[in-house]
Amino acid sequence: MRKEMANNNSESAGGKTNVSTVINPSAGLPARRKRLSKFFPRPLDKVLRNRSAPVRDSFTLLKSEHNELVRIKRELTDQDLDVKKSDLVRAALSLLFKYDAKGIKKLLEALPQRR
Fold it and tell me: Helix, strand, or coil here: 51?
């Protein structure tokens, strides 16, 4: 029976679920930490297990807004800062998170309408 479980654990590649991950939630940690995590959990363990994976998405911008994004990207590149357009969008989102619903509504109303 143990050999069968060992075979199931070693066959985790190819989309199969790793049995140790299902049984032991600390399976993503180093071996020594696995033993200690049963008795001394750390808040960082949850962060390490719950990392956000990047998600691809598409959206529509006005040509003028896209040009501004490219202009800002070029300015930052000229200052030897390697930045992508997606980084600029993420930075804008982090600024947007500081507003409440009323503030976001005002910002959205001030945007030019898409056709």
Answer: coil
Rounded percentage of the chain residues whose pLDDT exceeds 90: 42
> Which residue from 90, 85, 87 is spatially nearest to 74, judged by alpha carbons?
85
Instruction: Report pLDDT digits (tens) over 12-38.
Output: 445 555 544 444 555 565 666 666 666
Tell me the DSSP string of the chain.
Answer: -HHHHHHHHHT--TTPPPHHHHH-TTTTS-HHHHHHHTTS--HHHHHHHTPPPP--------HHHHHHHHHHHHHHHHTT----HHHHHHHHHHHHTTS-HHHHHHHHHHSPPP-
How far is residue 97's CA from residue 103's CA, in Å, rounded to a whole number?
10
Token pair for residue 92? 């804008």
For 65-103, the pLDDT digits (tens) are 999 999 999 999 999 999 999 999 999 999 999 999 999
Contact 77, 83 (CB under 8 A): yes
